[in-house]
Design a protein that fits this description.
By secondary structure, the chain is α/β, with parallel strands linked by helices. The protein has 14 helices and 14 strands.
């Protein structure tokens, strides 16, 4: 029988309040070892805060956070030798060279043979030719790679990266993705926070979607896209867009249709065949062009929120909620109590009369 791996990170019903304001609410999440897990969400969703709980920089208000088998936060110094952290700000010494920065941080980790280790991480991140360059002359992408190299000096089991490709060009993005994939192949677990769906598709084994501190779902990137659908962008006149929108309201497989400055965006369920919808559109009105594409991250958030809202509405109308009718209408409960008391008084008087 194959031995079950211990999860690298576990959140069990974790909430965090700051000054009575809920920042994270009831997060339950498991990240397996030797994987790349992405935390997706817009600015303010709680991504960086969630990472701060993993690193022990903040303490949760409720629930339990376990990282590499250690309950967080912890004062165990040996534990922190097992994690590497790259936050949004690179925080490098600008006047020192790349190699000097890494040697300095290697001394903080008391790494044996630091020069050899610095050479290894420079090669791993493709920075060997820039080792003697002062940091202040580097591009944003090279600084980002240097920060990741610094986090890898002590060969951590868990690497935590907040916005791994923040402010870098397309070529550097792909280079960083390749480096992260190679780290996973070498047995590292990587937890990233990102605003980019294409980044999650490129490198993540799983993605967890946060919105206003709530975990909407956890799934593979492909399953997330399939679940939230694709988009058919139609370029048409406002009159044609209006006709198409009206027809599609009753068309199977269509999640919703939104008017755009150039026409209409039609959001389809993941298993919907686009040819059928295109045929319906062309039969309804004339269009200039159309394009089929995956939904972007903002559109996925909106779809998930609509699904969540529909579920909430359904639950509010369920028998379970109806059992709490007295909480919703407290006066009804008072009238019922008065009525019961009146019946008891009448019954008492009736039975006390001599027969």
């Amino acid at each position: 029988m194959q031995e079950t791996q211990t999860p690298a990170v576990m959140f069990e019903n974790v909430s965090l309040n700051i000054d009575s304001n809920p920042i994270l609410t009831d997060i339950t999440l498991t990240i397996p070892e030797n994987s790349i897990a992405g935390i997706l969400g817009p600015n303010g969703a709680g991504k960086t805060t969630l990472l701060s709980l993993v690193t022990g920089l903040q303490k949760q208000t409720n629930g339990k956070v376990t990282v590499l088998g250690q309950q967080m936060p912890t004062k165990n110094k040996a534990f922190y030798q097992q994690i590497g952290v790259v936050m949004q700000e690179t925080s490098l010494y600008e006047e020192l060279t790349v190699a000097e920065n890494l040697l300095f941080f290697a001394s903080l980790y008391t790494i044996q043979n630091p020069k050899q280790r610095v050479k290894e991480v420079l090669e791993l991140l493709g920075l060997s030719t820039r080792a003697n360059d002062p940091v202040h002359i580097l591009s944003g992408g090279l600084k980002r790679r240097t920060a990741i190299a610094r986090a890898l000096l002590h060969n951590p089991k868990l690497l935590i990266v907040d916005e791994p490709t923040l402010g870098v060009d397309v070529e550097t993005r792909h280079a960083i993705w390749e480096h992260l994939r190679s780290l996973r192949a070498n047995g590292h677990t990587i937890l990233i926070a990102s605003n980019y769906l294409d980044e999650a598709q490129a490198i993540c084994d799983s993605v967890s979607v946060l919105r206003e501190g709530n975990l909407l779902l956890t799934d593979s990137p492909d399953a997330l896209i399939a679940r939230t659908g694709h988009s058919l962008d139609v370029e048409a006149t406002p009159e044609s867009a209006e006709k198409i929108s009206e027809v599609l309201q009753k068309t199977k497989g269509v999640i919703r249709a939104e008017k755009t400055p150039s026409g209409l965006s039609i959001f389809l369920k993941g298993n919907t065949i686009p040819d059928t919808i295109v045929t319906t559109v062309l039969k309804t009105a004339s269009v200039n062009s159309f394009r089929f594409r995956p939904a972007d991250l903002a559109e996925i958030f909106q779809t998930l929120e609509l699904s969540s809202s529909a579920t909430t509405t359904k639950n509010e109308n369920s028998p379970t909620i109806q059992k709490n009718i007295f909480k919703r209408y407290p006066l009804l409960g008072i009238f019922l109590i008065i009525a019961i008391l009146c019946v008891l008084v009448v019954a008492e008087v009736w039975f006390s009369q001599p027969r």
